[in-house]
Model the fold of this input.
Amino acid sequence: MLRGLLNLLWFVLGGLVMGLGWWLAGLVAALTIVGIPWARACFVIGNFSFWPFGREAVSRRDLTGHGDLGTGPLGLVGNVLWFLLAGWWLAIGHLGSALACFVTIVGIPFGLQHIKLALIALAPIGLAVVPIERSRELSR
Done:
């Protein structure tokens, strides 16, 4: 119940804007046929940005137990290209939103979510979004 309330407050008080930012980046990436892998990542992280409480981004290698294109050397190259072209813009947006949230004590959980999303914005290729319970199982 608390997660639902936090997600609703998040969505109304800023999550919508950042989620749409991710979707816009995904749309621009999809317009260039070469950018489709980045577009997919943008839409996944955009959905995560809309409703972040109760979910976490984890490496697909940790999730599946084996590597794939996004978790190997090509994923590294993809993340470097992503960072140079769009990642730092989204990270700056999340950091600015985090600073605005940290002004109040009530906003601290929202600011922490923005920082988490800013780190994801720097290198989203090779990540999967899972429920937090699944993430805790992986860390054991």
